[in-house]
Design goal:
Layout (H helix, E strand, L loop, with lengths): L1 H30 L5 H4 L1 H11 L3 E6 L7 H9 L8 E6 L5 H4 L4 E4 L7 H12 L4 E5 L14 E2 L6 E3 L4 E6 L2 E9 H5 L1 E6 H4 L7 E8 L14 E6 L6 E5 L6 E14 L4 E13 L6 E6 L3 H6 L4 H11 L3
Parallel strand pairs: 1-2, 1-3, 3-4, 4-15
Antiparallel strand pairs: 5-6, 7-8, 9-12, 10-11, 10-13, 13-14, 14-15
Length: 320
């Protein structure tokens, strides 16, 4: 009888050990973003939140640019919309990497002027600290006054970079050297201009084309939306024109805007189709920790009544 009790005890001990091991593995792959907690079970989301605490979101903003941080915060927190628990606002001048590490998700919008150090900080938040980042519109497309507007090769005299998201900063370890911050490669897209700078936009909402989801329709950021939707904007609620870096292994275009024909801008040909939502695979393998929204997510709802793009930003980026 004693031997049987010992055998049962050993079996129970091994079963508990296996359950703990499974729990640790589930925690690690959820934390790393490899799987979403809802892919395991809604109950696992609750358990994960009990361990980590509810997700914390930070909206970083500046003095100009596309987006309405206050409205985005309202939609995220309001129980009629997303019902997010903790959503904070912080001006870019008060943000440090230490601040960012406290948050599960950081959204940057209405922050047109950012320094090379700012861009490097947000990249480090994702790559080194495991954070999740949503970059919006024309954020970071205006340099600080003391930054170089371009970098020229001394041997050839050719400009080796001239993109708003590619910056140069001094190398702290070697004053005679410099470091290029390739934030465009990090996002997987390159900034061209804001649409209404290239096209005469109307003051009231008007149709500019159709939003088209990626073919499977299963990506978390567009899940539940119609595959094709009308898209309306106005002069005050513009969007950014970007181009995908076609040879980037990290770039994934989730939502595009189809103008219905080639559009000629004031200074360049805009083409027929442009990205609206893109993601970037950085950090853990298979984890899309970075998303770029050419159009502020709050305006999807306020101007177009497309609620799921806003809701999916929160639940999709956080693996809910």
């Amino acid at each position: 009888m004693g031997l049987m009790d010992q055998g049962q005890f050993d079996l129970a001990f091994k079963a508990i050990g296996l359950i703990v091991l499974i729990g640790v593995v589930l925690f690690l792959i959820t934390w790393s973003g490899i799987v979403q907690c809802k892919q395991v079970s809604p109950y696992w989301c609750q358990a994960y939140d009990m361990i980590m605490g509810g997700p914390r979101v930070l909206i970083v903003y500046g003095d100009s640019g596309l987006g309405d941080p206050q409205l985005l915060r309202l939609y995220l927190q309001d129980s009629r919309y997303v019902a997010a628990g903790a959503v904070d606002l912080l001006n870019i001048e008060r943000v440090s990497l230490g601040n960012l590490k406290k948050y599960d998700l950081v959204v940057v919008e209405k922050a047109k002027r950012l320094s090379a150090e700012h861009l490097q900080m947000f990249e480090d938040y994702v790559v080194k600290s495991g954070g999740r980042l949503v970059w919006v519109g024309d954020a970071g497309t205006e340099r600080y006054p003391d930054e170089l507007a371009g970098l020229t090769d001394q041997n050839t005299g050719k400009v080796v970079y001239n993109n708003a998201w590619a910056r140069v900063k001094d190398d702290p370890d070697n004053p005679a050297n410099y470091i290029v911050v390739s934030f465009d490669e990090f996002l997987g897209v390159r900034y061209v201009d804001n649409y209404c700078n290239q096209v005469d936009c109307k003051d009231t909402n008007y149709l500019v084309g159709s939003l088209e989801s990626e073919p499977t329709g299963e990506h978390p950021l567009i899940f539940g939306t119609a595959p094709i939707l009308n898209f309306r904007i106005n002069k005050a609620h513009d969007f950014a024109l970007v181009k995908q870096i076609s040879n980037s292994p990290n770039s994934n275009i989730v939502l595009t805007l189809n103008f219905g024909g080639n559009i000629k801008g004031k200074s360049s040909d805009l083409g027929k189709i442009v990205p609206i939502i893109a993601t970037s695979n950085v950090g853990a393998p298979g984890a899309e920790r970075v998303a770029y929204y050419a159009y502020p997510p709050e305006w999807f709802y306020s101007d177009n009544q497309y609620f799921y793009y806003l809701k999916n930003l929160y639940y999709g980026m956080l693996g809910r």
